[in-house]
Amino acid sequence: MATRPAGKAGSWYPGKLADLEGQLNEYLALVPETINDSPLPVPGARVIIAPHAGYSYSGKCAAWAYSCLDLSKAKRVFVLGPSHTYYLKGCAVTTFAEYATPYGNLTVDRDTIQRVKEAGGMQDIPRARDSDEHSLEMHLPYLYKRCEKTWASPDEFPTIVPILVGDNNKAEEKDVGRILLSYLKDPENAFIISSDFCHWGHHFRYMVYSADKDATKLTTLSRLDRAPTGPPIHETIRLLDEAAMDAVKSGKHDAFVDNLAQTGNTVCGRHPIGVAMAALELLAKEATDETKYRFNIISYERSNLVQEPAESSVSYVSAYAIL
């Protein structure tokens, strides 16, 4: 079977191994030695949320999530991302046997792919779309590097299970969460949830503003408008993201979906996050402790502190959940 090429290498991140290694080492060196009083990687942190923009934009933020990710028992890593290249209803799985990175190839777990596909009635990702999609690819160099620190040989690396999570409503996200629940319970599985947060600007068709610093009181700007006389635009962006992050931290899938419906926040990985939250919430209910298995937000950055309506910004978040 075919290998998916590292299509963004040389543009979204360095294509030369030495340059990529230097960049990732630089970002990882900026992460503290402990996070939330825990050594790194955080024991049991088998689920992370991390961004997927070009590394010069989101690589520093992503380093926090990958520093926390516990792969010590992992035999497979699920990578859940949104589709940017075509409209997808439901979910879809890769047909490739391997994904290339500048470090080397990562092997797809074809058996698990088939089981998940059948259980969820999922589609195949068209290969051209798969090759163009960045939401999965951007995580693989970091994952490969973390695997190198955990195992002596690539032969020991966990396999990957790449899944695109498309446009699903609240009930459909819960259904996918139920399918993934058994895999979430297994300590030999880790999960990477791929998402950026607020995309603000004319290009993203999202230019809301709150003069009252209230996420429930939003007006829409035009790129031809002058800068607001009230709080700068970037404070509204932070306000929106903080509301979304609070919903993520709540552990309540409904709270997250409802927050995005209220604010319209353009979290591109809302559906992968929603699926993960639905599964984690089910796990917490089974444990009769609904305070368990919640995400901890550990890094938040924006590509630009927007002042003028003609500007744009994308937000990045890193988080982990201990299972």
From TrEMBL:
Belongs to the MEMO1 family. This is Protein MEMO1. It comes from Tolypocladium capitatum. InterPro entries: MEMO1_fam. Pfam families: Memo (PF01875).
